[in-house]
């Protein structure tokens, strides 16, 4: 089969035809054959990880919003009533799970598991895990929103840059008493620089500069991290009236909303606030030289974003998509309604959310968005989506 590595030399139009004819499970397996095939076929886009309700098994449905979707069967032990999904990375296919006996990473494509062996699980509440692409059992970088059960809401972060070689637990400095970490985004800046952006419930953003890994060296403690605020780096005090214009400067009201942070590959930050009562969303864009610096946005600059338990993914979309092409729509927020376990899309032009599968399979519960790419790029924010949608 390796002789077909010449696919990389096919004309782009013909290669598109071949790729479009492959179901998701075949597409993923073909890309795994060799380096030449991975280079010839572009990475797939975020998929929806769901739990089947009619048989207890799990599947990955493709990113395109069509009822007639190919599925990839996952090991039935991947998730269970005692093992919940608490995150997904930027590829390929890894998700983070947490249960009474294990906290770690699982690959539904291969069944491989990477437990966090030195992670002190007892007494900790894990709400989200983000991690670097292509983790291995001995070498991975991960950041965890965690806290002791009796101190939930204090804003604690656990991280490792040396895999199972050691974990560090730190508290985000300067948080108000009732504030906590609402979301975290991992980003590889290149040149060995790794950061985690921590969004608080009050809308502040703290930047955790992760120390360089020391894999292979015997060190009992990781190097100390470096914290700074995205806004007003020299200060650890957050002033909502300076960061946000009225009526968004009410810190008490802001903590009642579900919040996510998104970093696009053009360098722009967005905060997405969702009203838990009516699913209304507010999108704020960060302007470092403005006061206030977080300003309500009318669009996402042509991007569409996938938020939830996953490391946030931002994709630039050329074209408007629409009903005729069941693909990605620009300036939309794809999210998961946890109360209904349903995948939804919020259109910034209409200001409304609608189900991603209005006429689709009712026998599943949405869990998170799972990125199926190779992880070769520095982060999933570098993916560029063409107007044509993949046919599955």
UniProtKB/TrEMBL annotation:
It comes from the Eukaryota. Residues 76-347 form the KIB1-4 beta-propeller domain. InterPro entries: F-box-like_dom_sf, KIB1-4_b-propeller. SUPFAM superfamilies: F-box domain. It holds the Pfam family Beta-prop_KIB1-4. This is KIB1-4 beta-propeller domain-containing protein. It comes from Oryza brachyantha. The lineage of its organism: Eukaryota, Viridiplantae, Streptophyta, Embryophyta, Tracheophyta.
């Amino acid at each position: 089969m390796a002789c077909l590595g010449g696919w990389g030399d096919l004309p782009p139009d013909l290669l598109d035809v071949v790729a479009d004819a492959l179901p998701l499970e075949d597409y993923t397996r073909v890309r795994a054959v060799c380096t030449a095939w991975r280079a010839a076929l572009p990475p797939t886009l975020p998929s929806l990880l769901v739990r089947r309700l009619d048989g207890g098994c799990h599947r990955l449905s493709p990113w395109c919003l069509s009822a007639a979707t190919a599925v990839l069967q996952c090991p039935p032990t991947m998730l269970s009533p005692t093992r919940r999904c608490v995150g997904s990375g930027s590829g390929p296919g890894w998700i983070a799970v947490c249960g009474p006996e294990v906290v770690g990473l699982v690959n539904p494509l291969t069944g491989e598991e990477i437990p966090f062996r030195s992670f002190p699980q007892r007494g900790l509440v894990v709400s989200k895990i983000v991690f670097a692409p292509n983790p291995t059992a001995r070498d991975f970088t991960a950041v965890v929103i965690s806290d002791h059960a009796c101190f939930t809401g204090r804003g604690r972060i656990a991280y490792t840059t040396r895999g199972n070689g050691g974990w560090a637990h730190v508290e985000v400095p300067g948080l108000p008493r009732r504030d906590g970490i609402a979301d975290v985004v991992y980003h590889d800046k290149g040149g060995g620089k790794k950061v985690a952006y921590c969004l608080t419930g009050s809308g502040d953003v703290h930047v955790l500069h992760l120390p360089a890994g020391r894999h292979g060296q015997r060190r009992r403690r990781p190097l100390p991290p470096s914290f700074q605020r995205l806004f007003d780096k020299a200060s650890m005090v957050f002033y909502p009236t300076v960061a946000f214009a009225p009526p968004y400067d009410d810190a008490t009201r802001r903590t009642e909303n579900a919040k996510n942070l998104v970093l696009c590959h053009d360098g722009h930050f967005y905060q997405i606030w969702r009203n838990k009562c009516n699913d209304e969303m507010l999108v704020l864009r960060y302007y470092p030289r403005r006061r206030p610096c977080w300003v309500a946005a009318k669009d996402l600059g042509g991007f569409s974003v996938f938020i939830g338990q996953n490391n946030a993914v931002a994709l630039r979309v050329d074209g408007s998509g629409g009903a005729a092409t069941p693909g990605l729509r620009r300036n939309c927020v794809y999210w998961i309604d946890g109360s209904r376990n349903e995948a939804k899309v919020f259109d910034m032009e209409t200001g409304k959310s609608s189900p991603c599968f209005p006429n689709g399979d009712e026998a599943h519960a949405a869990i998170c968005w799972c990125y199926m790419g190779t992880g070769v790029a520095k982060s999933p924010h570098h993916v560029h989506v063409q107007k044509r949608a993949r046919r599955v």
